[in-house]
Amino acid sequence: MNFVLVGVSHKTAPIEVREKLVIPEPKLTEALVTLKSDPCLEEGMILSTCNRVEVLVSASDIPEGIKQVKTFISNFHQLSQDFLQKFLYDFTQVDAVKHIFRVASSLDSMVLGEPQILGQVKTAFSHAQTAGTAGNGLSHLMNKAFFVAKRVRSETGIASSAVSISYAAVELAKKIFNELTGKTVLILGAGKMSELAARHLASSGISHVLVWNRTYQRALDLAEIFRGEAIRPEELFKHLERADIIISSTGANNFILNRADGERIIHRRRNRPMFIIDIAVPRDVDPEINKVNNIFLYDIDDLRNVVDANLKQRQREAQFAEEIVRQEVESFVNSTKATDLAPTIVSLRAHWESIRQQELAKSRNRLGTLTSDQEAAIDNLTQSLLNKLLHGPISELKSLSHTSEGQVHIETIKRILGLKDR
Hints:
Number of domains: 3
Shape: elongated
Radius of gyration: 32 Å
Mean pLDDT: 88
Structural class: alpha/beta
Low-confidence stretches: none
Order of helices and strands: EHHEEHHEHHHHEHEHEHEHEEHHH
Strand content: 5-15%
Largest sheet: 6 strands, parallel
CATH architecture of the largest domain: 2-Layer Sandwich
Helix content: 55-70%
């Protein structure tokens, strides 16, 4: 296990630095092949997102591996290492394993518990497999990372609550209506925040989208995205009663909906509930409208309070997730040590079995002709002696593999005995 990871993230570098290091998908294969061309780097993959760019390799020499990965990043992006040094971080061996597990489990994300990162890690690994730069070592590591991420999601509530304004709006809508299928949403103002909230609502089963904007063409453009219906600027009040959910972010200087408007709308809707999300600053909807029965108004501060509460809940769940990561890192390291030790044990047995066979051949010349039963008895006797002699050394090797200095001792034993991995 000789893993090296070098990278930058939202924690260490501002966006103006991260964007210089992004590797777009069309250039990823070229980058991977270039990375792998260094003889010190045996395997490699690259994770490139808006919030992080990380290069993970298996290296024959750890210090040289760190050096060569940093050189690759510098050369590929034509940026000086002096400039990059203050933004880059590196992890090796167990620390690299732990970091990958945390990243895949979204414990290192800007938004704790967000689901996108796992898919991005899987895509990055898939690119490395396709490019031929991921071998058995990375495959073992990444398959374990995906397993850890699945455990974290299934055994903790780290992703169970909304931590964005748009997601919080959807969660509140679900609480009011129980079921969003068949509901109509009206977007007032075709800004990015409104569009994002509408996208989340649409993915939750909303059947129809109405769009109103002071610029009618913008309303048409956004309505086309949702296969919805654009409302002309002068016809807003003709359509308000059709909406079960209103998302408002117009940038108007005054309220565009007040309590009297709400009373008329609810009357026309025959008291069917209406959910209004006012994410505009200054606000679009008079807070007095919340006093109208069956109108539920939430402004951006209400949504932020929901988000803050949910973030605290995620942070509590993250403690359980970190314990899962700790357990799985320990499990992975132990299994890897056992795998790394196997060639040494095979070599040890083969070495002494060769000596046994040589000594048996010498003894046959002295013993003369033996019956098959006598041959078998001598073979069983020497085999039993060899097993007993090797039991102690093999047990000691296995014990050493679980200690921090174990690999050093194992390499010393191999050199003394002249063993080679097979």
